[in-house]
Amino acid sequence: MSNDITIELMETMFGVVRLIKEEMSHSHNLSHLSILQMQALFFLNQHENTMMSDIANYFHIELPSATSLMNKLYDQKLVKRHEDPKDRRLVRITLTDKGKNLLQQAMNDRRKTMENILSYLSEKEKERLLSILKTLRGCLQK
Questions:
Q1: How far is CA 11 from CA 16, 52, 99, 141, in A?
Q2: pLDDT tens across 114-137, in order?
Q3: I need a surface site. Which of 40, 60, 63, 125 has the fewest CB within 10 A?
Q4: Three-class SS state of 78
Q5: Beta-bridge partner residues of 82
Q6: Burial class (CB in 10 A: 0-12, 13-18, 19+), 116
Q7: Where are the beta strands (DSSP E) in 11-61?
């Protein structure tokens, strides 16, 4: 692949991601949450009873940063903390009902937004895009 194509792909991908993030941030229910906070809610929804170290590892951040992230969600009553029954030194994090409801709203809002964004593509183009993105993800996850 030539250098020119690589640069154009890079600029285009960054531009598309930036525009998608901008579209996604227009949700009224979520304007008070950062992208990282939303990603944390998604992560906690998939990984119940998570330890703080798991959050830090997943987001590639230091433990104090993970704690700060969770504190902000805790202050909004979106997550709750509890001690591990086997080891009181460990703190487990779970979503509250409020956090689950907000996440469900977010998923619905973002699905609608993504449907609007993807409406510019034909079904065949969507299938090709999905295939390409899955291939890239698979290569990067190895």
A1: 9, 35, 35, 22
A2: 999 999 999 999 999 999 999 999
A3: 60
A4: coil
A5: 92
A6: exposed
A7: 50-51
* Backbone conformation region of residue 60, classed left if phi is above 0, alpha if psi is from -120 to 50, else beta: left
pLDDT grade, residue 9 (50/70/90)? Answer: very high
Of 33, 138, 36, 35, give the one whose Cα is nearest residue 76.
Answer: 33
Size of the chain, expressed as the number of residues it contains: 142
Res. 31 pLDDT band, cuts 50 70 90? low
Count other C-beta atoms under 10 Å from residue 133's C-beta.
Answer: 10
The pLDDT of residue 45 is above 70: yes
What is the rounded CA–CA span in Å between residue 115 and residue 109?
Answer: 10
Is the model's pLDDT at 41 over the cut of 90? yes
Which tokens is 49 given? 């009873």
3-state secondary structure of 48: coil
The pLDDT value recorded for residue 1 is 57
* Distance from C-alpha of 101 to C-alpha of 86, rounded to nearest angstrom: 30
Q: What is the pLDDT of residue 30?
A: 60
